[in-house]
Design brief:
The complex is a heterodimer. By secondary structure, chain A is an all-alpha fold. Chain A is built from one helix and no strands. In chain B, a hairpin with a 2-residue loop joins strand 8 and strand 9. The chains are: A mainly alpha, B mainly alpha.
């Protein structure tokens, strides 16, 4: 491939990578919100593996 | 050093970049948790001032789980408040591991990338969430140990001294850090290098390993000595096999136990899993990048570059195997046999902790991959800024696949202060005649309103300056893992039978009973009303009862129980001797022939 095209491909690839990472971060934040569960607060015994 | 050399030297070296990235990660991860006050969740319990009790020193006959790291906290909390100590230690984890892995890289970009993964990953997030700060301090010390062992392997000046110093530092973080440290030290020292060892080199290597083991044995005596000789009942039967099953690695992603471990997760406690990792897409990308980083490093034969890389590769893979062993067919039986039958085998329980070394290996591989991306850009003619920019983008992947860690896990970790009633009861107990204190409800974990109802280990063992008896059984949602305390077991039996409760308490040296009235209580193990006759303190949520003087207990182990601490005290002498020997060698080498 022509060196100029290689350089262009590298720069475009870097830009695309940035977009993908940004979208993934947003997706991760949404997934994080969805995975938050309301922990059970009161029971006669508090277990070590209960959610906080 | 010439002026020109000083002028061209970068202001911030690889360690400095790693430390800075670690600090930024720490601030972003802890967020609101850095405010004044205490972080209290799961096993994360700090108090205003931790006393230098037999328990803190690891000589009270119980399993020395937080020894000698609690000793370090106790000493520090006599100088500054406990919450300052807590925040400083937590930030030190991030800064330390960042600086450590940064020092293993050859460029600042690589150091930053490696430091970001080392200080922002599922292992650190989950161990922080469960409160295992001692493990994390050990984890932060490991890369320094790798570098020091590599120096020794290469025969560099002062390598032995550095290895000795970092072995002691790792020992101060507790048994887990020490064992992980021993694995990486031996791996780096023993890993074969390109120049096959000659007979003379073999002798030297044998001497270096002997030195490392000698310092290890002395520096870690504060936990192994009481474990084997002061708490023998605990060491011979590290509990029941149910504990192995309960605490084995578990899948916290959609990619099974192995997929979870490869990305640094897989802790047994589902309550501490980082939000967002349950997404197959997010954890799948994390897994792909990890495999890509390790795959690239393998393809580039990075282990050939230094004993540090080669040793870390061996130690990382071994640690991954240990972490996953209990989750594969046949492995569980093997781990169970080791844990229940071998003295000290209990260290293999909760085996996911071993994945720490694998995480450091991935961090170094990530740094190498980012350096390659930058070099590729330069090779195709991209200007330096663009090449470094793309490298930086790739380096950000750990943040993207673990957004759940940010800002105190989305505000889950917040600093609180102990109520004034706690201080009042602590002061009241300090003024009372001798006698141990039993804490009720008769279970180990609490949810306090002042702590936003988070699950937390009962703090009274640390708040009071005298012996505190608690039920050390670990209640899990699926089962109860029996504790090691024979006193606690006898009291539990008496409570369940509703007979001779007073006798059982007094046989354990208990004179006072502290009832936390704001906690849920199981009627089957509640304190009998006959023992509530003489309250000596009543504060919001707390009532303290006096059962009357307990019969004098037979004296415990004699002064010999402190021998483990003597071992630690001896290590500075070993290091001083090494300093003298190093100086002598340097002088000899500098003398004209």
């Amino acid at each position: 491939m022509d060196p100029t095209n290689l350089k262009l491909a590298y720069n475009i690839g870097g830009g695309l990578l940035g977009v993908i990472l940004a979208l993934l971060a947003i997706f991760g934040l949404v997934a994080q919100q969805n995975s938050v569960t309301q922990p059970q607060k009161y029971s006669s015994q508090i277990n070590y593996d209960s959610s906080n | 050093m010439t002026t020109t050399a000083m002028a061209t030297r970068p202001r911030l070296g690889v360690r400095g970049v790693g430390a800075l990235v670690g600090l930024l990660s720490g601030v972003l991860a802890l967020g609101p948790a850095l405010r004044p006050g205490y972080l209290l969740f799961y096993d994360m319990v700090f108090v205003p001032r931790l006393d230098l009790s037999d328990r803190t020193l690891g000589v009270d006959g119980s399993v020395p789980r937080a020894v000698p790291n609690d000793l370090v906290v106790a000493l520090a909390s006599h100088v500054v408040p406990g919450w300052v100590v807590q925040k400083a230690l937590l930030l030190l984890v991030f800064v330390g591991v960042g600086a450590g892995v940064g020092g293993l890289m050859s460029s600042r970009l690589g150091a930053g990338a490696a430091a970001l993964f080392a200080s922002w990953n599922a292992y650190l997030a989950e161990r922080l969430a469960i409160g295992h700060w001692g493990f994390l301090l050990g984890y932060a010390a490991l890369p320094f140990l790798v570098a020091a062992a590599s120096d020794v392997h290469l025969g560099r000046a002062r390598g032995r001294l550095r290895l000795g110093v970092w072995t002691v530092v790792t020992a101060l973080t507790g048994s887990t850090g020490a064992i992980l440290g021993l694995i990486v030290t031996l791996a780096v020292l023993l890993v074969p290098t390109r120049s096959q060892p000659s007979g003379l080199r073999r002798v030297r290597l044998g001497r270096e390993i002997g030195w490392a083991l000698l310092v290890f044995v002395f520096a870690n005596a504060p936990w192994w000595f009481p474990f084997l000789f002061v708490a023998p009942s605990a060491s011979t039967g590290a509990g029941d096999s149910a504990g192995v099953t309960a605490f084995m690695s578990r899948a916290d992603t959609s990619w099974g136990v192995l997929g979870s471990l490869l990305t640094g997760g897989g802790i047994w406690n589902a309550g501490t899993w980082t939000p967002g990792r349950s997404s197959a897409v997010v954890s799948g990308v994390a897994l792909l990048v990890v495999l890509g980083c390790v795959g690239y490093a393998g393809w580039a034969r990075a282990w050939r570059r230094s004993p540090a890389y080669a040793g870390l590769a061996v130690a990382g893979v071994v640690s991954l195997i240990i972490a996953g062993a209990s989750a594969v067919p046949g492995g569980r039986q093997l781990v169970t046999a080791v844990v229940t039958d071998l003295p000290g085998g209990g260290l293999l329980r909760d085996s996911q902790k071993f994945v720490a070394v694998w995480v450091l290996l991935v961090a170094v591989c990530a740094g190498l991959l980012v350096e390659k991306v930058r070099d590729l850009g330069r090779k195709v003619g991209a200007d330096r800024t663009a090449a470094v920019g793309v490298g930086l983008l790739v380096a950000l992947w750990p943040l993207v696949v673990l957004t759940g860690l940010a800002w105190g896990e989305g505000g889950r970790w917040s600093a609180v202060t102990y109520p004034t009633s706690y201080t009042a009861v602590r002061d009241r107990v300090a003024a009372l005649p001798p006698g141990a204190v039993a804490v009720f409800p008769w279970t180990l974990y609490r949810r306090y309103a002042f702590d936003h109802d988070q699950v937390v280990l009962d703090p009274w063992q640390r708040l009071l300056d005298r012996r505190v008896v608690v039920n050390d059984d670990l209640p899990l949602s699926s089962q109860v893992v029996r504790g090691e305390s024979t006193d606690a077991a006898r009291i539990t039996t008496a409570l369940e039978r509703r007979t001779d409760v007073r006798a059982a308490l007094q046989a354990a040296g208990v004179r006072y009973v502290l009832v936390e009235t704001d906690q849920p209580s199981d009627p089957a193990t509640a304190l009998p009303s006959a023992l509530r006759a003489n309250p000596v303190a009543r504060e919001a949520g707390l009532t303290l009862y006096d059962l009357g003087p307990a019969p004098r207990l037979p004296a415990g182990p004699g002064p010999w129980r402190y021998l483990g601490l003597v071992g630690l005290a001896v290590t500075p002498l070993l290091l001083v001797r090494e300093v003298t020997a190093t100086r002598r060698n340097v002088v000899t080498e500098e003398l004209p022939a």
